[in-house]
Amino acid sequence: MTTKQELPTSTDVLIVGAGPAGMTLAISLRQLGVDCVVIDQQPQAPDDTRAAFVQPRTLEYLRRVQVAGPMIDDGLKPRGLAFADLDRDLIRLSYDTVDSPYPFLLIIGQWQTQRHLERRFAELGGSVLRGVRLLDLVPEFPGSAATVVDADGGLRVINARFVAGCDGVHSRVRDRLGIGFPGSSPEQMFAVADVRLDGWPADRLETAFTLSPHGMLIASPLPGDLVRVVASVAPGIAAPTQDDVNDLIQTRGPGWLRNGKVTEVLSSATWHVQERVATRFRHGNTFLVGDAAHTHSPAGGQGMNTGIQDAANLAWKLHQVLSLGAPESLLDSYDAERRPNAQQLIEFTHQIATLATLAGAKKQQMRDDILAAISAVPGVIEALSVRFSQIAIGYGDSNEPFAPGTRVNPDIINADDLAWSLLTPDPAPPDLPPGFKVTVSNDVPHPVAVRPDGIVAGPEQVHKLFGLNLALATTA
Length: 476
Description:
With 476 residues, the protein is an alpha/beta fold. The chain has twelve helices and 23 strands. Strands 1, 2, 7, 8, 9, 10, 18 and 19 form an eight-stranded mixed sheet that branches. The longest helix is centred in the C-terminal third of the chain and has 25 residues. The radius of gyration is 23 Å and the shape is globular.
């Protein structure tokens, strides 16, 4: 007999949607000591693999909330990915050169990621209120009154100081706020199947993106001796059967994959690609996070990672406002930082999808020859690896190391929690604000403050939030 979950009547942060983005936000807030409530209309977490790629940048943040280690133990760790045609590898990206403690692409089913996030949330005393659907959201100064339908069909009201819409592409939160979701819906369909396949080579751990005359095929190993196959298909195609997947592999796969044979289909589906970004990520006391804020082509394995990093960006700012007296204007920076990033992401994945679905033998041959040629140009592989791994994402005007808005390698500051860090060439002053972790290092010429999401904070922001003048933050 299950115990009925009690819905609270108030909370600091109401999180609508318990996918990876919502759960990352919830864990982060709990770890920071902020009260939050998570509701999800699904009676239980999905058990399919869906988003299966976790990039190094995402692992760096998940390390801060004590989730990265267990996930890595559960997944596969290829050192990169490959782009190929039917007969040859065109480009093989290597994450070995990526400046991260995690120089690999973690392959793990989304259901596994979800399990690890919910386990961590439970460790922090939280639980997801499932089967609870958001009906309405009404401003009620200084927060919002959320009317929800509980698992028994009863109407309840939760008063929340802030609300985070983490409820996916068809976001109820976005709809109730009237936020636009402009973009395009290209004539692109994708089929996806998770299968058992006899004949996957032992020396091919990485994901392979194959560009064939018949369309794109992505093949990737999954934990549990499974293989994921994704293919661009014509609109209206049904979910692929075992024969369909075998046919896709034979007509589109690289030579080394065509020796394999699918023996079982565990799940399959099709979906229509949309490329959209919300017109704003903040509306008063409410925020859009993850797929509720942006959606795009699956090419490149970027989507879930971007949603998790949305949560990383928002969590510390909510904590700063709710618990440390920061002005609410700090929350404007969530939209200012994350929405341009989402727009750039869509441009990137669109370019990949466009290249992969080029029509015409001459154009396809030219594309393949160019890709093969540029792979030999010094620095190209490294630059592409940094882009795919999301390591280079930042919010500043300069890419110089330790400039405001740039990312800091977490190993440099021993970033194992959500504390602020002071990286300094000299001992820190005795009046350093509480909560800062100090790392003395010759890597920096002057004191640098690093936010809980791993980004260098500008001196003005540090002074505004803590009254700390970085120019004077030494004992010298």
